[in-house]
Amino acid sequence: MATNRWGTFKGNVASWYAEFPPACWWNWSDMEAFADTVIELAGHTEVFRVDRRKLMSGVDLFGHLTVSARVSVFGAAGIEQRWTQDLGGELLELRPDLQHAPRVPAVSIDGPISHDRTGPVYISITTATDLWFPRVVGIHDDPAEHRHQWLDNSVLARRHTPRFNAFLAGARDAVAALGGGWSCDVGVNVRYADWFDVAGVRLGQPGLLELLVRWSGRICTVRSTNAEAVAGELDLVEMRLVPRFGGFCIEPPPAGLREMRVIQREGRFARLDMQLNGSALTRGDLDAVFGVGVGAPRVHFDSFHTLTYRWNQPSALYGCEITAEFEGDPTADTPVTGLSMHRRDR
């Protein structure tokens, strides 16, 4: 059985900081709206949901938060999705061999850090766990067992870290909208410095699941209705749009895809259609990132089984509806055969 090698730390592993100009002290309603946007975004991405919030003063933006996060861990039956307030307690349950693990949430957010109204307004987003990282140091393990080498946590990270990075991207955009700056800093273990930047945790070459999160965000936030313009925002390297009936084919298709098409209706972007190679993606992968899909009745005995997922961005013009096709009644390990990502008016 796979082992949870990730750990919890007595200090922060990674921190991201928002710095707003001093003028924001005198437009506090904008800062309160910013805080509400960040909390809404966190709930949408399920990086955390607020179980309790107690504001401590008139300028306290986030207050004393009690939060739960949806994360992936190795349980007795394999990979499990869990909502948890206390990752240390969760780890002690999962690993009876451990005697102690610091009790920390998956993500913390605080601000304003300083109440000096002649200086900037600072907000921090921090994590005291390496559960989000694809490689971990094995903080709770005997160093002699792995000779100080990195341990693999990519199976778990690829399931929940795309949501974490999507949350950070949304928070960064909200900061920029108020004229603020964005930075990051390493915490108690400098070895992690190469594994994250201002954009979030680095998962290496983006996998298909991470790309789906990125594309769904683009579908929601790109204002243009032009199909070519939307396709141009997908961040695909060396992309060519080859005209096909009803839209365009993207050549070459990204890794993991046999075909990718941009579909337009009456000259407007409508959706992305994708055919997958082999077992590049499973239902479990989609459920881990987008939540549990909703099934639809089959129209014919040999029709695909389908599940629908919905992804919305706070304050975005559009929503994204993702339809996944399966050849059989899907379990967590059933490969995805096809995907469609539809733009929906909100």
Instruction: Note the overall shape.
Output: globular
The residue fraction in helices comes out at 10-25%
The residue-averaged pLDDT reads 88
SS strand fraction = 25-35%
| N/C terminus separation | 44 Å
Would you tell me the structural class of the helices and strands?
alpha+beta
Q: Major sheet, described briefly? A: 8 strands, antiparallel
Structure summary, number of beta strands: 19
Question: Low-confidence spans: pLDDT under 50, at least 5 residues?
Answer: none
Number of helices: 7
How many discrete domains? 2
Strand order in the largest sheet: 12-13-14-15-19-18-17-16
H-E string: EHEEEHEEEHEHEEEHHEEEEHEEEE
Query: Rg from C-alpha positions?
Result: 21 Å
Explain what the structure shows:
Strand 10 (196-197) and strand 11 form a beta hairpin. The strands form five sheets. The chain has an eight-stranded antiparallel β-sheet with strand order 12-13-14-15-19-18-17-16. The chain has a four-stranded antiparallel β-sheet with strand order 5-6-1-9, with helices on one face. It is built from seven helices and 19 strands. The mean pLDDT is 88. It folds into two domains: 14-201, no CATH class; 208-345. The protein has helices at 28-45, 87-94, 143-146, 154-177, 208-221, 227-232, 283-290, and strands spanning 14-20, 49-54, 64-75, 78-84, 108-110, 121-127, 135-136, 151-152, 181-186, 196-197, 200-201, 240-244, 247-251, 257-265, 268-276, 294-295, 305-312, 318-326, 338-345. It is of the alpha+beta class.
